[in-house]
Amino acid sequence: MKKNIIISSLFLSTVIFAQDKGLVANSQSPYSKLQSVGLQDVKWTNGFWKEQFDVETKNTLPYMWDLYHSETSHAYKNFEIAAGLSKGTFKGPSFHDGDFYKIFEGMAATYAVTKDKKLDAEMDKAIALFAKVQRKDGYIHTPVLIDERWGTLGPEEVKKQLGFEKYNMGHLMTAACIHYRATGKTNFLNIAKGVADFLYDFYKKASPELARNAICPSHYMGIVEMYRTVKDPKYLELANNLIDIRGTTNDGTDDNQDRVPFRQQTTAMGHAVRANYLYAGVADLYAETGEKKLLDNLESIWDDVTYRKMYITGGCGSLYDGVSPDGTSYDPSVVQKIHQAYGRPFQLPNATAHTETCANIGNVLWNWRMLQITGDAKYADIVELALYNSVLSGMNLEGDKFLYNNPLNVSNDLPFHQRWGNVREGYIALSNCCAPNVTRTVAEVGNYAYNLSKDGLYVNLYGSNTLNTKTLNGETLEIEQQTNYPWDGKVTLKILKAPKDLQNFFLRIPGWSQNAEVSVNNSKISDKIVSGTYLKLNQKWKKGDVIELNMPMPVELMEANPLVEEVKNQVAVKRGPLVYCLESDQLPANTSVNDVILNLNSDFKTDFTELKNRKLVTIKATSKIAADNSWNKILYKPISTKDGKSVTVKLIPYFAWGNKGQGEMTVWMSH
Length: 671
Fold this sequence. Notes:
This protein is an alpha+beta fold. 33% of the residues lie in helices and 19% in strands.
């Protein structure tokens, strides 16, 4: 049974609370344990994330902004045509509007940190165009509005509800909220209010069949964020209605997570991007309503994903195509198809792994929200795992080429062509949604680093930065973090300014770490340190106090549950939060990465190497290449008794694969 929603008159305010300038404005969310710091509160100073942020600001963001203003993309041109500034037809995928809003969101988040006036001016120019496009009733979706303006609409509008219409609106609302917090301006927020009002009215009147036409539900997150930002209770009512409407028609599918109502869903199903966006949106709703059934289902689904359906990289969605394990019939004519989807438990192929970059980003969005609700470090572990591995792998080191899917094995001998390639591209025609998503995500990583609660400060991610924020009591808190993480496990937190009252610090002890040590002002603490939890440090802090966290980073050999058939008797290599891989450029000519047998007793020596102006820690290991490694027209053969050839190989972080030209790659290796 749903919990009654009580809207306090205190919430009906448009004031930005001190803590409501982050990715989520949850300082007033009654069921959120942790609150965001401001987008501008964290600045990377050096090291890994500073390098990545520099790539973002110097390469990725300007490249994407220019690309989406060009004829190659045609996205900005679609807005101009819809506004009546020029005549033409819509070009590009139906989610093009949303992709532009994602880039815009990345620009707003970047502006919050840099205060670059050029970014501000570019955003204002785009917002003015959005205002010209928007219909009087608040509707904005360029494929329909272009047809409507130029007299070619007809009955297709209803059909185009299937074309990512609500998805685009969801990204608009989220981007508008971020822009408002970054700039204090309401010009974009006013457009978003029109969209939210349109959706509220639409869902009041629409039939269930029409209302369910909303694939990839980014608007769940968007409408809750609008509620948090402008405190209009009808937006929270709409968010509840969006959950209520799911699974109420006879034509629902597991692919779209609406075959059955959400409150009956306990496992992950269907299209992985749509699924993870849905779970993130439901988590947002729970933070406002506290409906226990929502959280119970989210936790059950999380267990299903994390322990049975997620790759070692944090990647999600193993299947290019398949059939629903549950929403199927023995009659082949009515079997339910799924695509880019979660499969059955432990169904995790490597060469054909879909693992769309957007799904992996969705995994971050979902786990981030679960962390806010619960304060449980296990969710921060997944945020870190996905960010460092399956999210960053979606972009090259120079920040201007991208991957749609993120396989864990690339083999030249596969005798079939996959729809999306294994080589990063500057523009992935008709499927470029992931590049704008990476663009905004990298710009926003700083906001994941810390959280506030009534109990103190939570330190979630490690990287050299400065934090200058206000506690929930409005007192100034300034921290300087210094570290070479993820290459090194030593982290130093220096207190520059702390409240006079007692203040707790909660340090995340990553689940991957063992034997971590913590000292305060050079005095080692005696408290038990447990991996996968937050360590509470409690004392009266003063300027100059220093907290030091030391996490050993040995090379670890990982094996999978034996029910993961694809990698039985194989190992993967991890060090700290990073998954490593082997590329074929490390091997003799005419040798495949699949021929390599890793020596588990290797010394596993680490060293820095430079690739595309980035310093990376690589791992050297010894291995053998089978004496007889020919598989031409052979499916099975006896194991060779001959000694193989010894080869020293250098493993690189998985996120950096494919930056040296086309070749083979594998995460899992025989031993």
